[in-house]
Amino acid sequence: MMAMTARSSTSLCLRRTAAGRIEGVPKVGVVVGWARKREVRGLCVKGDGDGNQVSVDTVNGRKVNGVIHGSDASLHMGRCMGLGNEDGGGMVSVDSFKLGRFVEDRFVYRQAFVIRSYEIGPDKTATMETLMNLLQETALNHVMSSGLASDGFGATHEMNLRKLIWVVTRINIQVDKYSRWGDVVEIDTWVAASGKNGMRRDWIIRDYNTNRIIARATRETRMLSKIPEQVREEVQPFYLDRKLIHESNDDKIDKLTDETAENIRSGLAPRWSDMDVNQHVNNVKYIGWILESVPMNVLEDYHLTSITLQYRRECRQSQLVESLTSMTASDTEETSSCKPDLGSTHLLRLQEDKAEVIRARAEWRRK
Known about the structure:
Layout: E1 12-16, E2 22-26, E3 32-34, E4 58-59, E5 62-63, E6 101-103, E7 108-114, H1 128-145, H2 157-161, E8 167-175, E9 184-194, E10 198-207, E11 213-222, H3 229-235, E12 263-268, H4 283-291, H5 296-301, E13 302-311, E14 321-329, E15 342-350, E16 356-366
Antiparallel strand pairs: 1-2, 2-3, 4-5, 6-7, 7-9, 8-11, 8-13, 9-10, 10-11, 12-14, 13-16, 14-15, 15-16
Main location: plastid
GO molecular function, one term: acyl carrier activity
Subcellular location: Plastid, Chloroplast
């Protein structure tokens, strides 16, 4: 017998069936089924009836999701899970559905994505969280496709042997145009050294149809200790020193306090689905928490065109978070098309001891 505590007023009764499954039966009539977790060993994808490999590399004549077939299919990632189907169709490599491709002598990894209906916001355009998710997906696929990835989430073989991980310290994203539902975007990414113990990753996002750059981003990561020489030798051949966003080292983000913040939102609680594989809150979740304390009229009338995040510490599931925001208007006497209409400063902190989690600075332009 299991017990579950529900936050809502709906009660939930759990019972074990003859087949060994655990079912929850709320009084409102919704049946919830539960099964013990076990390792997923395969995924069945059907081929066509003639024994040919299924291709999903084009939708309405446009290439999507970076799928590669034929001679370039050797750039597959990890273990191949090619499976047949009950109708006699051909073998399909599930890993091939994740593929992008290497360009520029394999220094740059490129992958395309369709903007899904669940990735857009109320204004029918992709959200900043969507862009962050796509950047993260492309980065991890880059590591996997290069052959560097071990069992760790983005960690190399040598890092995994030494139980090392990269820690994100700073992210800067600049957006010129947000894509809409059904648009195809193409993302390029590459890496370079950052100081003695860090790595920088850059991205550009293009509109696939026009080839126009619509967003760019850079991220700095570091290790908590000196990078072992074996790890350095492992990643150095992939370095491309091409910097997209130039920031000065003294580009400090001021710390907000109860006195300087205009809006404070308390009681933000991490959910189980917000956790990453390291049992920390996923980096993308922080964007949503930051926006929780932004005035509603700003969210409705302005586009978030730039945001810089400085990570101070990790947040775990048991910790409540507070979001602080202070808005600033631009100088109305200046009419430069490059100047934002609004600026904002943000702070995420732990509610219990006020320890900083993230400092952030953002820029906004009227829609």
